Amino acid sequence: MQVNPIQLFDAESSTFTYILVPPGSREAVIIDPVDRHVERDLAHIARLGLQLTHVLETHAHADHVTSAGKLRAMTGAKACVPSGCGIPPAEVQLNDGDRISFAGHEQIDVIHTPGHTAGSVCYLWRGNLFTGDTLLIDGCGRTDFQSGSADALYDSVTRKLFALDDATRVWPGHDYKGQSVSTIGWERRHNARLANRSREDFVALMAALNLPRPRLMDIAVPANQNLGLPHSV
Amino acid sequence: MQVNPIQLFDAESSTFTYILVPPGSREAVIIDPVDRHVERDLAHIARLGLQLTHVLETHAHADHVTSAGKLRAMTGAKACVPSGCGIPPAEVQLNDGDRISFAGHEQIDVIHTPGHTAGSVCYLWRGNLFTGDTLLIDGCGRTDFQSGSADALYDSVTRKLFALDDATRVWPGHDYKGQSVSTIGWERRHNARLANRSREDFVALMAALNLPRPRLMDIAVPANQNLGLPHSV
Question: Domains in chain A and their CATH numbers?
Answer without folding.
Answer: 6-211 (3.60.15.10)
